[in-house]
Amino acid sequence: MSQDHRHKVAIAILHQHGKFLLQLRDDIPSIPYPGHWAFFGGHIEPGESPYEAMQRELLEEIGYAPAALTPFDCYEDTQAVRYVYQGALDVDLSQLVLNEGWDMALVTLEDIRRGDRYSQQANQVRPLGKPHQRILLDFIQRTAS
Q1: Which of 118, 132, 122 shows the shortest CA–CA distance to 12?
Q2: How far apart are CA 106 and CA 56, in angstroms?
Q3: Taking the CB of residue 119, how many other CB atoms lie within 10 A of it?
Q4: In angstroms, how far apart are the furthest CA atoms of the chain?
Q5: pTM for this structure?
Q6: What is the CA angle 105-83-140, rounded to 5?
Q7: Residue 90 has pLDDT above 90, yes or no
Q8: Of 5, 7, 58, 137, which is least packed with CB atoms within 10 Å of its CB?
Q9: Using one digit for the tens of pLDDT, what is the confidence trace for 123-142?
């Protein structure tokens, strides 16, 4: 039996008033999706459940984790297994502390469909990561009905 070498990550769809919190990843070529808008979250440590990883990563990255995160779906490709959680962002953006990444913002449905968003920090329009865009479009479609 072959070993699965794909990255195992837990990521969060945090939503507020029809908008979605995304992180502009650092523009470092050695990381996945450098300089792209993506979800907050990260690698699942050995012995950690995806939910525990999600809570830990949110606290590390923005100093906040919602009281309730529910599983949304699991997305697998050749590079990663993404455990996706969703929950309401029930604090103002100003209460979050960006500890990792270049910028953060609430993106609109138009931004998601277009596949990019302006970043005040970068002072330029930056693309959404393709898997992140697809997950958000799936989430919007499934929760609209």
Answers
A1: 132
A2: 21
A3: 17
A4: 49
A5: 0.94
A6: 55
A7: yes
A8: 5
A9: 999 999 999 999 999 999 99
Tell me: domain 7-144, CATH 3.40.50.300, correct? no
Specify whether the CB–CB gap between 5 and 11 falls below 8 A: no
Which of residues 4 and 15 earns the better pLDDT score? 15
Amino acid making up residue 128? L
Q: Distance (Å, rounded) from C-alpha 89 to C-alpha 130? A: 23
Tens digit of each residue's pLDDT (9 = 90 or more) over 39-85: 999 999 999 999 999 999 999 999 999 988 999 999 999 989 999 99
Asked if 126 and 35 count as a contact pair (C-beta separation under 8 A), the reply is: yes
Contact in structure between 88 and 66 (CB atoms under 8 Å) = yes
Gap between the Cα atoms of 111 and 73, Å rounded: 22
